[in-house]
Amino acid sequence: MNRPLLARHLDGLGTTIFAEMSALARTTGAINLGQGFPDTDGPTEVIEAAVAAMRDGANQYPPGDGIPDLRLAVAEHRQRFYDQTFDPDGEVLITTGATEAIAAALLALLEPGDEVIALEPFYDSYAACIAMAGARRVGVTLRPPHFRPDLDELRAAVTERTRVIMLNTPHNPTGTVLTRAELEAIAAVAIEHDLIVVTDEVYEHLVYTGEHIPISTLPGMRERTVTISSAGKTFSFTGWKIGWVCAPRELIAAVRTTKQFLTYTSGAPFQPAIAHALRLPDTYFDGLREDLRHKRDLLGGGLRAAGLTVYEPQGTYFTTTDITPLGYADGLDFCRRLPELRGVVAIPEVVFFDNEEVGRPLVRFAFCKRVEVLEEAVSRLKRLEP
Ligand code: PMP
Ligand code: GLN
């Protein structure tokens, strides 16, 4: 065959950095602070609800939109936390994790040649799905030390071809939580140019500084926003892959069109269990956040003591660092060597950047791990020199 097997518009997608680094953790036995998944399970009562559902026969295809009780629980959750009303019949769609929601939304909304403005570093699936849609990403770079979006850069990025602004707040990997003023400025751009905002809010409950404000709650935004979230991070069940989309009926109809042909439906016994989880009392959500705040501080202190520049995240369960003070310059090379050098796995952020100069020295560590694991990791990282 004289043509590469992988379609040309997918060039460069290769293997995800999370897969590469988790495989490295397995083969070297290193502590995995790379891929973001907790090393403890979510609430036992939620597991029991999934087991009960399986025993009660929730083992065949659920409805394509998701089971009615989970759609209702998602709508109740929006009302409870954001005072926002979504009709569970037609304005809520259950997906196979946020990953499928992102893919379904972008594949539904974009035409070849369209442009998507997104905060850079980009979570890897945004770049992949934009490429699969034949569209083009245009980054607005979040730069150290504060990783705030430059709103003039964002305004200047809009062209005739712009169709979507893709947001992520709290932002993976920088931990930036967009402020009301930033969101208002972004909303004004979206309204002025009649753009759709797709917003990934999977870390909505993991905010330590500031407040999570869904952009869909701002005036004029509900009708043009596709909000995506997931049970993975909020309930520590990343392997269950239950996500959801909230949006007005016409946008849900568009996303449903592609979603039907990606997985159609999934997670039969997990859907009722996540409905139960979404109805847990506020103490659950507060407890999760406070536990992770403590872990953020523990890891941040340890990384600082190891000599790295630490950028304290406002949200998510990731800490971004700069390895330059240790005498290293290239995060990718550093992360490939770190398991051998120190028995720890981390994620090089350069892979999430088009603007590689900015991303090259940045390395992300996950702190969603048991305290003793974080303590062991930071003790291994001490006296780290080239
Ligand atoms: N978006 C972001 C920003 C993420 O960090 C992740 C990983 N949880 C996802 C989407 C994917 O979520 P899910 O596991 O629910 O597919
Ligand atoms: N969201 C997880 C992270 O940022 C990774 C999920 C995945 O492997 N695709 O670490």
TrEMBL record:
Domain Aminotransferase class I/classII large: start-end pairs: 30-380
Gene Ontology cellular-component annotations: cytoplasm
Cofactor(s) needed by this chain: pyridoxal 5'-phosphate
InterPro entries: Aminotransferase_I/II_large, Kynurenine-oxoglutarate_AT, PyrdxlP-dep_Trfase, PyrdxlP-dep_Trfase_major, PyrdxlP-dep_Trfase_small
Superkingdom of origin organism: Bacteria
Keyword Transferase among record annotations: yes
An MF annotation (GO) of this entry: kynurenine-oxoglutarate transaminase activity
UniProt keyword terms in alphabetical order: Aminotransferase, Pyridoxal phosphate, Transferase
Similarity comment: family membership: Belongs to the class-I pyridoxal-phosphate-dependent aminotransferase family.
UniProt-recorded name of the protein: Aminotransferase
